[in-house]
Amino acid sequence: MTRAAAEILALKAFGWIVADDELAGRFLAASGADPAALRERAADAEFLGFVLDFLLADETALLAFCAANGEKPEAPMRARAALPGGDLPNWT
Protein backbone atom coordinates (compact mmCIF):
# COMPACT_ATOMS: atom_id res chain seq x y z
CA MET A 1 0.00 0.00 0.00
CA THR A 2 1.31 3.46 -0.83
CA ARG A 3 1.72 6.08 1.84
CA ALA A 4 -0.92 8.25 0.17
CA ALA A 5 -3.44 5.38 0.20
CA ALA A 6 -2.54 4.66 3.84
CA GLU A 7 -3.15 8.28 4.80
CA ILE A 8 -6.54 8.25 3.08
CA LEU A 9 -7.57 5.07 4.88
CA ALA A 10 -6.39 6.52 8.21
CA LEU A 11 -8.37 9.71 7.60
CA LYS A 12 -11.45 7.58 6.95
CA ALA A 13 -10.78 5.75 10.19
CA PHE A 14 -10.37 9.03 12.06
CA GLY A 15 -13.71 10.30 10.74
CA TRP A 16 -15.38 7.01 11.61
CA ILE A 17 -13.95 7.03 15.15
CA VAL A 18 -14.98 10.59 15.95
CA ALA A 19 -18.50 9.96 14.61
CA ASP A 20 -19.06 7.40 17.39
CA ASP A 21 -19.42 9.04 20.81
CA GLU A 22 -18.02 6.11 22.79
CA LEU A 23 -15.04 5.57 20.51
CA ALA A 24 -14.41 9.31 20.25
CA GLY A 25 -14.26 9.57 24.04
CA ARG A 26 -11.84 6.68 24.29
CA PHE A 27 -9.77 8.12 21.45
CA LEU A 28 -9.57 11.53 23.12
CA ALA A 29 -8.53 9.93 26.39
CA ALA A 30 -5.87 7.82 24.66
CA SER A 31 -4.50 10.79 22.72
CA GLY A 32 -4.41 13.17 25.67
CA ALA A 33 -5.40 16.01 23.32
CA ASP A 34 -8.47 18.15 22.92
CA PRO A 35 -10.65 18.06 19.78
CA ALA A 36 -9.10 21.23 18.34
CA ALA A 37 -5.59 19.81 18.61
CA LEU A 38 -6.71 16.58 16.94
CA ARG A 39 -8.19 18.46 13.99
CA GLU A 40 -4.91 20.34 13.57
CA ARG A 41 -2.93 17.09 13.49
CA ALA A 42 -5.23 15.25 11.07
CA ALA A 43 -2.80 15.82 8.18
CA ASP A 44 0.23 14.58 10.18
CA ALA A 45 1.35 11.09 9.09
CA GLU A 46 2.53 10.21 12.61
CA PHE A 47 -0.87 11.14 14.03
CA LEU A 48 -2.57 9.03 11.35
CA GLY A 49 -0.39 6.14 12.48
CA PHE A 50 -1.74 6.65 16.01
CA VAL A 51 -5.29 6.60 14.60
CA LEU A 52 -4.63 3.21 13.04
CA ASP A 53 -2.88 1.94 16.17
CA PHE A 54 -5.99 2.86 18.15
CA LEU A 55 -8.25 1.09 15.67
CA LEU A 56 -6.05 -2.00 15.47
CA ALA A 57 -6.10 -2.33 19.26
CA ASP A 58 -9.86 -2.99 19.25
CA GLU A 59 -10.89 -5.93 17.07
CA THR A 60 -14.60 -5.14 17.36
CA ALA A 61 -14.06 -1.57 16.21
CA LEU A 62 -11.64 -2.70 13.52
CA LEU A 63 -14.13 -5.13 12.01
CA ALA A 64 -16.98 -2.61 12.27
CA PHE A 65 -14.90 0.07 10.53
CA CYS A 66 -13.94 -2.32 7.75
CA ALA A 67 -17.53 -3.46 7.25
CA ALA A 68 -18.81 0.12 7.19
CA ASN A 69 -16.18 1.23 4.69
CA GLY A 70 -15.93 -1.79 2.42
CA GLU A 71 -12.36 -2.55 3.49
CA LYS A 72 -10.79 -5.94 4.06
CA PRO A 73 -9.87 -6.49 7.73
CA GLU A 74 -6.16 -6.53 6.89
CA ALA A 75 -6.25 -3.14 5.13
CA PRO A 76 -5.72 -1.01 8.28
CA MET A 77 -2.68 -3.09 9.25
CA ARG A 78 -1.21 -2.70 5.78
CA ALA A 79 -1.91 1.02 5.94
CA ARG A 80 -0.23 1.21 9.35
CA ALA A 81 2.89 -0.41 7.92
CA ALA A 82 3.10 2.33 5.27
CA LEU A 83 3.06 5.18 7.83
CA PRO A 84 5.87 6.40 10.12
CA GLY A 85 6.58 3.89 12.87
CA GLY A 86 4.68 1.15 11.10
CA ASP A 87 7.81 -0.83 10.37
CA LEU A 88 8.37 -1.52 14.06
CA PRO A 89 7.99 -5.15 15.11
CA ASN A 90 4.77 -6.19 16.79
CA TRP A 91 5.75 -8.09 19.94
CA THR A 92 2.24 -9.25 20.83
Main pleated sheet: none
* Overall geometric form: globular
Number of domains: 1
Terminal residue distance:
23 Å
Spans where pLDDT lies below 50 across 5 or more residues: none
The multimeric state of the shown protein is: single chain
Q: Tell me the series of helices and strands, N- to C-terminal.
A: HHHHHH
Give the mean pLDDT. Answer: 90
Instruction: Provide a count of the helices.
Output: 6
Q: What fraction, in percent, of the residue positions are helical? A: 55-70%
Radius of gyration: 12 Å
Instruction: Count the E strands.
Output: 0
- Specify the structural class: mainly alpha
Descriptive report:
- The protein has one domain (3-81).
- Helices cover 70% and strands 0% of the residues.
- It has six helices and no strands.
- It comes from Pikeienuella piscinae.
- Pfam families: DUF3572.
How would you concisely characterize the structure shown here?
The chain is mainly α and 92 residues long. It is built from 6 helices and no strands.
SSE topology sketch:
Elements: H1 3-18, H2 21-31, H3 35-41, H4 45-56, H5 59-69, H6 75-81
Helix pairs in contact: 1-4, 1-6, 4-6
Overview features:
globular, single chain, mainly alpha, 92 residues, 0% strand
